[in-house]
Structures are given as C-alpha cells and as structure tokens.
C-alpha cells in the first residue's frame, strides 16, 4: 500500500527537498504541499493524506494550531512534526495538540522515510533528544499529584500495563519492550491496545504524554 503524504512548510526549498526524498521511496507518494497551517487544514480535508509532515513555525497559522484543528476534525489523522531545533519550545505543545511524532529537519533520507512508515503504521515517533526534552520540561514543573481523572484512569491499569506505559514513554518500540520484559512482541501489542482503551487515548504518543503528566516518568 502506498503511503500518501502532505508536506507543510513555508520554505519552498524544504518542501521540494522532502518531496524528492520521499517520492524516491517505492511505497511513498507526496500528494500535495501547503505553505502554512491554514492551507494545511484545507489540504487535509481535500486530499485525505495518510501522513502530514508539519513544520511548526509558519505564518498565518503555525503547525501547532494546524495540528490541533486537523486532529479535532479527524481523530485518526497522523501528523509528523518537523523542526530545525530539538530544543524547540513548542515540542510539548505539538504533541499535546495531537501530533503522532516529532523529527528534526536534519534527519537523513532514511530516517525521514522510516519516520513516515512508523507514523503511518500508528506507532509513536519520538527521537531520543525529544524524549529527554519532555522529561526535562516536566522536571521544571512543581511536583503535584495527577489530576483526579488521570489518577482514576491509572488505577485501571494492571501492574504490567503500567510498566509497559512507562517504557512507551521512554521511547521504546514494541520489539524493544518485548525484549526488555522477555515476552513475545504480540503480547506487548495486546498490552498497548488495552492501555489505549483504558486511558481513552488514541495512540502511543498520547500515551507517552499521559505518562509524563501523571508523573510515571521522572528525570533520572
């Protein structure tokens, strides 16, 4: 199956470069481009791409606002956020807005293609630098108990599901979690599905953000 991609960036050279790299992949097709968030929202509605490559800093409507509108209109939308800086102050906001992953613009062609594949498959894509950034960001916030609804939902998880949730938040894939816990990957997939259902979350990225907010993951 061909993965249909929409590229959103206000710089023409960036859009053209990504288009060339992705169209060179046998199972990826760039079906459109947008120069700002407002145009991206309209293009997603018209073209229904499988993955949206979304820049953060753009005129008229930034990538965070666009991501929020796109996900609000379609809970299954998959947005892969791209930025120049791994310390971008908008990283957390983008993930909270519903982005499925985060990738730096200096990523290699292979990393970019892999990122598209991962997000299209419904997995979370959090580069190690981004995971560290999230943990650092939360370490600056005064410690507090999770909001009551969050605490109640955490209580619905089994001990093993909580363990899997923490490993998801640390950026591990299903295969890596399976290896760490010495169980079959299919077992981890089942745990992940149950975690998402119990917590009312749509994907692994939301699960990771939830774990940070609930203080299940702390700087170490």
Automatic annotation (TrEMBL):
SUPFAM superfamilies: CheY-like. It comes from the Bacteria. InterPro entries: CheY-like_superfamily (IPR011006), NreC/VraR/RcsB-like_REC (IPR058245), Sig_transdc_resp-reg_receiver (IPR001789), Tscrpt_reg_LuxR_C (IPR000792), WalR-like (IPR039420). The keyword Ribonucleoprotein does not apply. Residues 150-215 form the HTH luxR-type domain. It holds the Pfam family GerE. CDD domains: LuxR_C_like, REC_NarL-like. Keywords: DNA-binding, Phosphoprotein, Transcription, Transcription regulation. Residues 4-120 form the Response regulatory domain. The modification 4-aspartylphosphate is found at residue 55. This is Response regulator transcription factor. It comes from Streptomyces formicae.
